[in-house]
Design goal:
The chain is built from 4 helices and 8 strands.
């Protein structure tokens, strides 16, 4: 029996799913546990408790693998600390921690190029581009909800939703979200309307 556990860890909620032999066996919802400096052990405790709840009924006390996609895991030190804490809990043979955005990018496009906007408690834009020589390059540009201050995170969130709605109806998203919004290190550019 193959047992894999996946955790989607955000600021508002944590969802943990146990998959047995390719089929979903259990799903547990817990409080948000996004990674923050000096609060990694609190996040690890929340995630570990949710993982244990998904293990109930599988007949096992640990999984073959645990993959955690966590908001805040883009900060390497916190991601490494979370992985160490989860390994110490002995919940799985293999533990991997990455950003929630990285998991969403792979889920949406596999290894192909693509652009993804996630608009939740925090908002993030991610892109994987194909270079002129055919090689793929992953670019991650992330800005969390209030990171720009003064409501800029909410504007980015709204702009992402408008772009999604426009594309779902067959319209170009460019009037709502320009390529500049995904690049650079500053505020989103382009459409300045709130």
């Amino acid at each position: 029996m193959s047992l894999v556990i996946g955790a989607d860890v955000g600021g508002s909620k944590t969802i943990v799913v146990a998959e047995v032999d390719g089929r979903i066996h259990a799903r547990v919802r817990a409080v948000g546990a996004a990674l923050r400096p000096d609060m990694v052990l609190r996040s690890a405790t929340t995630i570990a408790d949710a993982i244990r709840k998904t293990l109930v009924g599988t007949g096992r006390i640990s999984a073959d693998a645990v993959v955690v996609g966590a908001a805040g895991a883009g900060r390497l030190e916190e991601a490494k600390e979370l992985a160490r804490a989860l390994r110490a809990e002995e919940l799985a043979d293999t533990v991997r921690v990455m950003t929630d955005g990285e998991i969403a990018l792979v889920a949406a496009f596999g290894q192909s190029p693509g652009i993804l906007i996630l608009a939740g408690t925090g908002s993030v834009g991610l892109a994987r581009l194909r270079l002129a020589d055919g090689r793929r390059r992953k670019r991650l540009r992330a800005r969390q909800g209030g990171a720009w201050g003064g409501g800029q995170g909410r504007r980015w969130h709204s702009r992402g939703h408008r772009a999604f709605r426009a594309s779902a109806h067959g319209h170009s998203f460019q009037r709502h979200l320009t390529p500049g919004a995904l690049g650079g290190g500053g505020r989103p550019r382009g459409d300045r309307r709130p």
